[in-house]
Design goal:
The protein is 26% helix and 19% strand. The protein is of the alpha+beta class. It has a single domain (51-247), classed as C8orf32 fold, CATH 3.10.620. The strands form 3 sheets. A 5-stranded antiparallel β-sheet has the order 7-8-6-5-9, with helices on one face. Strands 1-2 form a two-stranded antiparallel ribbon. A two-stranded parallel sheet has the order 3-4. It is globular, with a radius of gyration of 19 Å.
């Protein structure tokens, strides 16, 4: 942060062991005529890749003793796009969209699968999809550093952690139900809470609205919608992003 403005080191990946708190960089102001607008890392649209550049990946998970299968179309170039993408604010991170082919191979099928379910059961279905259709591994073990995956990268990756599952769950709820949500940041965990028509389970009140916590990451307990893991019940959290459907 310099003079209240946030700057990003574009080649920070070349200096992975550099501690910017100890070795503080010295800003050099460069005047560029006409360059008076801030740069944004928000990704509002993905490239239109050619359909034949996608590969198929089979995902499956079990829900109420029934197996569900998904043949998701994924593009390997998406990983290259985000190779040097920095750790951004949660509003920017949670709203990274899917590419067209990936969206069309997954979202309509999920919509069909939850179409006969009530609101609570449908959200539970999406929560368990994010929880059980992928293998879990912490970023330190997987990448050797903190790395947040976009929803599409999570679909592609062999392993993912709580940041990745929360972002994917947020994406699916937004695209299928478009319900108000808040993102809860714990000291060692991140979660999403959804505003239902009627609150479910433990209530979280934020800015006058009532939300129910949903756990999209595997836990030792089989948590239902509105249930919080025992290890987090008395742990303080911060609301780092509030999503309102009218503010897309």
């Amino acid at each position: 942060m310099v003079d209240g403005k946030k700057y990003m080191t574009l080649n920070y990946h070349d200096y992975v062991k550099l501690d910017l708190h100890k070795d503080v960089p010295v800003p050099v102001k460069i005047a560029v005529p006409g360059a008076d607008k801030a740069f944004s890392y928000k990704v509002t649209k993905m490239p239109d890749f050619k359909p034949d550049s996608y590969i198929s990946k089979l995902l499956n998970f079990s829900y109420h003793n029934r197996e569900y299968y998904f043949e998701v179309k994924l593009n390997t170039d998406v990983e290259a796009i985000f190779t040097n993408y920095p750790v951004v604010d949660y509003e920017s991170y949670f709203n990274i969209p899917l590419t067209k082919e990936t969206y069309n191979s997954l979202i309509p099928l999920l919509k069909k699968n939850v179409s006969g379910m009530n609101e609570k059961k449908g959200i539970d279905y999406l929560m368990r999809f994010c929880r059980n259709a992928f293998l879990y591994e912490d970023d330190e073990q997987n990448f050797g550093k903190e790395k947040r995956l976009s929803p599409e990268e999570t679909l592609f990756a062999k392993y993912s952690d709580c940041d990745d599952r929360a972002a994917l769950f947020f994406c699916l709820v937004k695209e299928i139900y478009n319900m108000p949500m808040i993102v809860l940041l714990y000291p060692t965990h991140i979660n999403v809470a959804v505003k239902f028509s009627k609150p479910v389970g433990a209530r979280i009140v934020y800015n006058g609205k009532v939300y129910s916590e949903c756990e999209p990451t595997p836990q030792l307990e089989d948590l239902r919608v509105g249930r919080v893991a025992a290890k987090l019940k008395n742990v303080p959290y911060k609301v780092v992003y509030q999503y309102e459907p009218g503010n897309k």
